[in-house]
Amino acid sequence: MKEKVKVRDRILNVATELFSRQGFNQTGINQIIAEADIAIGSLYNHFPSKNDLLLAYLQRKEDEWFEGYERSCKGTSSAKEKILKFVDFRIAQQKQSDFCGCPFTKIISEIGSQEAQIQQMVESHKSKQRVLLQGLFRELKDTGELDRKLLAENFFLMVEGATVNTTISRNMQALEHVRKFIKKLID
Amino acid sequence: MKEKVKVRDRILNVATELFSRQGFNQTGINQIIAEADIAIGSLYNHFPSKNDLLLAYLQRKEDEWFEGYERSCKGTSSAKEKILKFVDFRIAQQKQSDFCGCPFTKIISEIGSQEAQIQQMVESHKSKQRVLLQGLFRELKDTGELDRKLLAENFFLMVEGATVNTTISRNMQALEHVRKFIKKLID
DNA sequence: ACATAAAAATAGATATATCTATCTATTTTA
DNA sequence: TAAAATAGATAGATATATCTATTTTTATGT
Lengths: 187, 187
Fold this sequence. Notes:
Two copies of one chain form a homodimer.
Chain A (H helix, E strand, L loop, with lengths): L6 H15 L7 H8 L3 H7 L3 H24 L5 H18 L6 H9 L4 H24 L8 H22 L3 H14 L1
Helix pairs in contact in A: 1-2, 1-4, 4-5, 4-7, 5-7, 5-8, 5-9, 7-8, 8-9
The structure holds a DNA duplex.
GO molecular function (chains A, B): DNA binding
Pfam families (chains A, B): TetR_C_13 (PF16925), TetR_N (PF00440)
Keywords (chains A, B): DNA-binding, Transcription, Transcription regulation
């Protein structure tokens, strides 16, 4: 009853694992084909260049991010809960990736903004998160004297900073601090 | 009256520029010696390996960071001002580096936490910033119902997230949003 | 100020390894 | 029988690092 994983998926699965864990620049084609146990010709059949593989990897991460967040929000109804889930989701991501951090942030550190297509995907990914959060914060009943849009932006930035810093420290404290703080602010 | 820059400094200056702009992994020894206009033997005389050069680069960044912040605080007296200067300093850094982001955060994205000595330096750098901010927030007269230590931590994380995201978007908005937000919170 | 010895810097070849990518020829799968 | 995947050689570029031999700089003693 074992499902045979197609070659293209084996490549992308291994590349995903390695790009996340080791980084893009420190992952060679040879390691990918070895660990995926496929021929180098097969790789270049599916992905004409290493850069195309990177694009496919990021596209998958993009899709999985929003699917994953939606799924983790199943059962929540209030905006307040969904905001807290936003932090919880990042905590879960960091746990399951062993503190790899955000793949989009990581790739910009690795290759800069030279590759226009990648720069575009990263910016778009972050932008979509901001829009999502702005929507949630707009639903909040009372935020005291705090502008909701400004609060949404800074909550996003806290989580971003906390994600980076949990990756550095390899413990979850920073993200937990954000959770505690925002809970106070919106409760 | 032209000061002759010593070989070791020429190497470190060029390496600094290239590691910041292009990244560590995307900067080769050959490019460094070419742009520094020195012989390869001289480089390996001063720095036994590329990793030693990286350590020297980070150590310099560490020293310059706190010197730079101190200098930018000259003339300010209140903790409130110094907290706002903290954001201004990061804005200035991003401007003058053309949005290179934090070198410590960047190197972790590039090489991970494998190199213990580097991991150590990065963690220590962030830790020192937290301590500095905790001290400043302790001095604040009134933060309403907000715990000062928690506020300091989350301010730090906001700035971290904003730094990363100004590097991604290549504009200063995120850092300006943090400034506006914290000003409201502590004013 | 000048000669000289030690240290530093140079050019440039080279070793060794790795990287991405291409190609051919053969086998497996659909 | 066509398409997909394989093994494996190889091209061509680039990486870090070492080595030799020579020149330049610096420091020291007279």
